[in-house]
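Team,

Forwarding the record for the chain on the shared tracking sheet. I've put the sequence and predicted structure together so nobody has to dig through attachments.
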Amino acid sequence: MRQPRRRPCRVWPPARARRLRPSAAGITLIEVVAATAIIGIGLVGVGSIVTYAVISHRKAVEHTIASARATQELERVREAGYLGAVVDESLFPADSYETISPSQVSFAADELDGGFGYVTITDDAEAQYINPGTGQPYGNMKHVVVHLFWDRPGDKTMSYSIATLISNRP
């Protein structure tokens, strides 16, 4: 009896091997360069966003400190009232303030880098009240302005100002 002829055993038939070869070949150099470029552009973008966020946060902190200090100075004058809102030793002690003129004092704002400020108190000439007993006008309002200045890196000077009116209620 004759035995049937056996075919040789093929692990990878040629048709199947052709289909798998492109995917089994790996990554090309062009794909690696493109992926590296895309990741590099993304990292540069993220780095610039982080840098901008840090700078913006520092500016916000400085403006918050300036606002708090200016409000503190404004409240000091407001609490003194209309008659007490004058540039003198009782309202602005010499150890913390320096008198520049009869209507202006300066102060150091140590909370800010190179910080200093001015408080200006002037009579508001447009707000006159006529005294019914004498018929003479007298001032009815004082204009109070607080200016703060401080240094930023890169030779930039920042500023913050706040103002209010204090009335003389007859």
